[in-house]
Structure formats: C-alpha cells, structure tokens
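Appendix C: a fully annotated inverse folding record. The material below is reproduced so that readers can follow the format used throughout the book. The structure is listed first as tokens, followed by the designed sequence.
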C-alpha cells in the first residue's frame, strides 16, 4: 500500500510538472506573438496615435493641437499605444492558446460552450472599443471643449489623453461583456434567469448611474451609454435561458428521477466495459472492505429519499470516495457523473476535480 501511494504521488507530481511546462510554452508563444505584432506596428506608431487622437483633434479650434510635457513623452506615448494595439490585435491568438491549455481538462459539453463564449467575448470587447471611439468620444470632447471658459486654450497633454482614452476603452470593453457575464452566472448555477429578471429595475438604475459617471453631465450622453448597457443585459438574460444547469431544470422532478438520466446510463454502459485496475489488497482484505462498503452504502441509502437533492449529491460524493479507495474507478465514475448532472456548482466542481485525479492516475 505504501509503495502504491508513493507511485501515485510521483505520477501526480510528474503530471503537475508537465502542466507547468505546457503553461510556460503557451505563455511564451503569447509573448512572442505580441512582440512580433509590436515590431510590425512600431513604424506606424505615430499614425496609430493620430488615429486615436482624431476624436479630440477634430473638436479643437483651428490652429490648436495637443502638447507633450515630458522629455520622452513624444516617443514613449505612441510606443505605449502601439504595445497596447499589439495586445488587442493578438487577443484571438491569446485566447486560442488559453483554449489549447484548458480544453483537455473539459468535458465535451463544456468544450462546446467555452469556445463560443471566448469568441463572442472577443467580438463584444472589440465592439465596445469601436462604440466608445466612434460614438462616445465625439460627444464627450465636443461637450468639454464647448464648455471651456472664454480665453482658455484647450491643449491636452498627449500622455494624459492616452490614459483617459485607455481607461474608457477598458471600461466600455468590460461593459460590453455583460451578456457573457450573465450567461456564465446562470450556467454556473449562481443565478437564474428569473432572478435576473426580478432585478431588472435595479439594473436599469445602475446603468444610468454608470452612464452619469462615464459621460458628460447631460441626459443625452448618459442615455447613450445606459440604454446599450440595459439592452446588453436583456440579451444576456435571453440567451442565458439556453444555459440553465440540469439541476435547475429538473428541480420539479423526484430525487430518484434526477439521479437517473439517459446520459448517465450511457456513460455507465461505456464505463462498465473498461477494465478495473489491479487491486492492491489481498482477497481477504478485499472481501472485508467490500462488505464494509456495502453496509455503509445500505445505511446511507435507507433515508436517501428523505434528503434534499444537494444532500443526495453529497452522499454520492462520499460513496465515490469510498469506491475510489477500493480502486473501483468504474463505480466511482458513475456516481460522479450523476453529481455532474444533478449537483450544484460546488458539488460539480468537486466531482470534476475527483474525475481529473482519477484520469491522471
């Protein structure tokens, strides 16, 4: 038994090291891609900055422009923007590397969900940047310059302007991720579409409050930001209905119906054909352990019909632990798959971690 545990610990350490090596390699690929993109864009750094500064430059009076206060500002500010542009342009490749790292640890249902979410979140982030550049910036800068006191020449430092622009790019990029955040909260079982609908009035008030802080103090600009935020929330609520966990969809059925589904039955049939690992117990010890596990299971099953769904899933997790100790991985997998179907978010995470440990052995 001691030799077996030592070998198991060694395999886990080797698996952990291999994951770290793969993570290092993918991070290096991301850094290399950003570096190459930065080098390719650097000759156009001034052009890129002028393009980003156009919303303000178009609002300035004729003959005026922006200034550079620091000694190295004329060089560092366009370079900083070029580096950021390289990061933004390589986001699809970065997400591809992240996907390649996490995909082996996901189940088929999760793979089908995560990849579309990654792609849609990227498109929404780009949409948020374009929205603030083409629609919000002209309104903000036009309002600020129009309200400047008489005799005051508006000459913004290029570094301060870039910091302001990047802050709004990030803010609107995150705001446009509202549908993705809503879908994930529902998919993880933290919220339900009905709960979100019940909080609609608070969401609308919050959207107008955020719009008040991020836009000039006029109703038109505030509405211009608040209405898209509200519409994005509504879109998230609509699409989240397609990602409601099975445990929420099956709450109206009986506890025993929940634990038996066609998906679990198919997985049981497949797993039943798999060979069981060679036992490390003697025949006598194995019989004693099996008898003890059988008695424990009978005791646990006596009152299981009186338990809630979450309590039943906790029982199944304990049973899976006992079967795993007996090296009955097939039986443990079957129970864990039932937890993945009917358990809550925390229970599903525990079941997934145990399955990953079984797969790594």
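Designed amino acids, in order:
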């Amino acid at each position: 038994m001691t030799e077996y545990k030592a070998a198991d610990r060694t395999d886990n350490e080797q698996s952990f090291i291999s994951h770290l090596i793969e993570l290092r390699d993918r991070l290096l690929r991301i850094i290399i891609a950003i570096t190459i993109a930065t080098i390719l864009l650097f000759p156009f750094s001034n052009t890129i900055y002028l393009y980003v500064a156009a919303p303000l430059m178009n609002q300035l009076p004729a003959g005026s422009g922006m200034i550079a206060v620091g000694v190295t500002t004329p060089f560092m500010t366009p370079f900083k923007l070029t580096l950021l542009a390289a990061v933004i342009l390589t986001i699809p490749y970065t997400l591809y590397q992240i996907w390649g790292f996490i995909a082996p640890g996901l189940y088929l249902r999760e793979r089908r969900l995560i990849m579309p979410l990654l792609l849609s979140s990227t498109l929404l982030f780009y949409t948020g940047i374009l929205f603030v550049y083409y629609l919000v910036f002209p309104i903000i800068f036009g309002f600020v310059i129009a309200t400047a006191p008489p005799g005051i020449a508006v000459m913004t430092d290029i570094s301060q302007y870039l910091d302001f622009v990047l802050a709004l790019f990030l803010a609107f990029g995150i705001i446009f991720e509202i549908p993705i955040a809503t879908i994930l909260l529902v998919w993880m079982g933290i919220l339900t579409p009905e709960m979100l609908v019940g909080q609609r009035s608070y969401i609308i008030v919050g959207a107008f409050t955020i719009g008040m802080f991020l836009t000039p103090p006029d109703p038109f600009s505030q509405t211009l930001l608040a209405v898209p935020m509200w519409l994005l929330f509504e879109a998230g609520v609509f699409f989240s209905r397609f990602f409601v966990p099975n445990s929420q969809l099956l709450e109206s059925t009986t506890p025993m119906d929940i634990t038996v589904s066609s998906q679990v039955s198919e997985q049981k049939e497949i797993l039943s054909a798999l060979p069981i690992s060679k036992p490390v117990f003697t025949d006598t010890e194995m019989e004693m352990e099996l008898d003890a596990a059988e008695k424990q299971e009978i005791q646990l099953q006596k009152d299981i019909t009186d338990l809630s769904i979450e309590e039943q899933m906790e029982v199944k997790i304990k049973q899976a632990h006992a079967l795993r100790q007996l090296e009955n991985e097939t039986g443990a997998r079957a129970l864990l798959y039932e937890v993945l179907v009917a358990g809550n978010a925390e229970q599903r995470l525990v079941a997934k971690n145990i399955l990953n440990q079984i797969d790594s052995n």
